[in-house]
Amino acid sequence: MGGTSNLPPGFHFFPTDEELIVHFLHRKASLLPCQPDIVPTVLLNCYDPWELNDKALQAGNQWYFFSHATQSKATPSGYWSSICADEMVKSGGCNVGLKKTLVFSIGEPSEGIETNWIMHEYHLLDGRNRSISSTSASSSRKLHRNKGHSNTESNNWVICRVFDSTCGSQVSFHDEGMELSCLDEVFLSLDDYDEVSLSSN
Question: What region holds the NAC domain (predicted)?
Fold first, then answer.
């Protein structure tokens, strides 16, 4: 599948931090089906960020993919390193995950050159099933028994968002807590139309 998606024409993949944790990462770790099933799995250590085309799900200038959490963040040309404190992700007033922000540097860790590539790496918290949904947790345990997966193996999943910070990104709406709904965008476009009409009179 790579960078293509099965979304209908006109629909764009623009999830919030909460949606990435609850609707995608939680279901992936619990062996539950993801709908829509469009986010691929990528081995983070095998690729540099500019090689994610046709491997991760591309949405504008952002790339999304599942991976396994690893201590080493080294890639063929460099490494990812944390640049700020972890952020808690909430859903319904409960903490459901962690958001780590990392920057990509080229070269060896001792003398790497920092780039403009940024990655948000999302992790589930321990006891995530109780926090998100006791019903899906029950289904998860059944699937684990049937397929022979351990809780440790499931907890190892992360979901990542990678983007070049110099390109301009819709990510800023999430970072600043200023998410726009479809209606917000319609109203803003109407305001712009009114301004144009007034200036022409």
Answer: 7-165
